[in-house]
Amino acid sequence: MGDLIAIEGADGVGKNTAARGLCAALQASGRSATVLGFPRYGETVAGVTIGRMLAGELDVPVSPKAAAVLYALDRLEWRDELLQAQADHDVVVLDRYVASNMAYQGAKLGGEAGRALMDWILALEIGQFALPRPRLSLYLDTPWDLARELILQKAQRSYTTRSFDEYEADIALQQRVRGNYETIVAADLLGPWRVVRASEGGAMRPPEAIVGEILSHI
Ligand SMILES: Nc1ncnc2c1ncn2[C@@H]1O[C@H](COP(=O)(O)OP(=O)(O)OP(=O)(O)O)[C@@H](O)[C@H]1O
Ligand SMILES: Cc1cn([C@H]2C[C@H](O)[C@@H](COP(=O)(O)O)O2)c(=O)[nH]c1=O
């Protein structure tokens, strides 16, 4: 079975660019690799609902636990495809995975309740749903002001025409998400972690430099 390498971090930190660059670099070195991102907008029942939630189009309140179950369900619905990708390739690069759920939904509650929800998500997704653990997770550390500029540069999203979706618009949430990632990385929750500094001197490092550093950790 191929290795899972997860690229993680707050919104707009350059995960998708790094994931695609890593996949291309692995392929250039002769290894078979593919990128798989979550959520699966428009492809799963949960993914459709998540898109509507992030676009602010759901007319019902969504508790952090309900949102966590939606994101977990999205991965459960895509579990066969994930396992097939592992069977077909040496490396599957994940653009967000279970740690995103822990960091974001835990951040909605904060404190002890947030930490308890993170543990609950880990038990649900890895324990109950038997989703595979990543071989390695990389946390992309990008200053929040740069990340906000990068969000504005993003191409049109499939699920919203807004510049910032519901989670991206909530700056306090984004700050707590960063704190949760630091907790997850420090405790190696879900598996081993490495931090990759994505900026230098107030600007983004070139994608090739970021990918080079990721490769040095693999
Ligand atoms: N290292 C980089 N240097 C310059 N621009 C970058 C870099 N990485 C990403 N970008 C640009 O920033 C924008 C956001 O990048 P990307 O989609 O990779 O971020 P993301 O973390 O996957 O975002 P999201 O969490 O919102 O899905 C894109 O327009 C991308 O081209
Ligand atoms: C996979 C996953 C994602 N989220 C959050 C993180 C983002 O704010 C959005 C969608 O991600 P995108 O990269 O901007 O497309 O959803 C989450 O809370 N739980 C998850 O499992």
TrEMBL record:
Alphabetical UniProt keywords = ATP-binding, Kinase, Nucleotide biosynthesis, Nucleotide-binding, Transferase
Reactions this protein catalyses:
dTMP + ATP = dTDP + ADP
Cited Pfam families: Thymidylate_kin
Instruction: Name the domain of life.
Output: Bacteria
InterPro entries linked to this entry: P-loop_NTPase (IPR027417), Thymidylate_kin-like_dom (IPR039430), Thymidylate_kin_CS (IPR018095), Thymidylate_kinase (IPR018094)
What Gene3D superfamilies is this protein classified in?
A: P-loop containing nucleotide triphosphate hydrolases
All copies of the Thymidylate kinase-like domain together span 7-185
Q: What class of enzyme is it?
A: transferase
Concerning its family, UniProt says: Belongs to the thymidylate kinase family.
Which NCBIfam families does this one have? PRK07933.1
Task of the protein:
Phosphorylation of dTMP to form dTDP in both de novo and salvage pathways of dTTP synthesis.
**Alphabetized HAMAP family for the sequence:** Thymidylate_kinase
This chain's protein is named Thymidylate kinase
Q: Say which species the protein is native to.
A: Sphingomonas pokkalii
